[in-house]
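Problem 12. The chain below contains 237 residues. Write out its predicted structure in token notation.
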Amino acid sequence: MTQDKTLKCAAANLSLFGRTPVLKTEDHALYAKIHSDFMTCLSPEDIVLKSLVDRLVTDQWFIMRYGRHQTVAIERSFQQSLDFQAQRRNLRKAKQEVLAKIQAEKMAQSPPEIAQLVHLEKRVGDPVEEIDEILERTPTEIEHNRALERTILFQEQLDRLVSNATKRFNETLELIEYYRARSGKRLRQAAEDLNAVSTDQGEVPQQTEGPSIVPSEKGTLADQIVDPNPSSREENQ
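Solution.
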């Protein structure tokens, strides 16, 4: 089968069962490839098997999604801690700016000293640059460990979802094997019934026995041959 024909078959199989379970943030092309690979590997013969294979792909996609979000949850928790640090830095900088403004008003009433101005500028600084530095900081393993601890309940929920999806996946595989076994049995039985009907309708010719070439107790083979002219045989006697 050519690649174009394979892609067309995959697209037809995808449209056959409605919308795919792919989110907008997920890779639609990856789902289509997995679906096509499952169809090629299992080669479903009818609509029942195609629906079972489609269910397999859906559960496999859910397993991949839950596993991916276990990692995303840790990253999200760490990012939330960074956002909290940035908010605290913003509040602290806002307070420093208010205090600096008050100090500047006081200094405006009297000639300011250069040292006081330099000290005031250092206290205010650049809040935007400091916040960017916080948000772009590379996490350490300990920080990720803390993030995992904060998301441990969510991790356990995702584990249960993975287990349930894996159970459904295995059960669907067993259904495919069971269906194929039953289908093969029905096909064999249908073939046997067809052969039986064909045998009953045909007449088997009866074989006739040929003349025996072994002498019997009544005489030789020549004595058993019927004479076509019995009258001539009596005259000779």
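Discussion. Residues 47-108 form the longest helix (62 residues). Students who got a different answer should revisit the alignment rule from Section 12.3.
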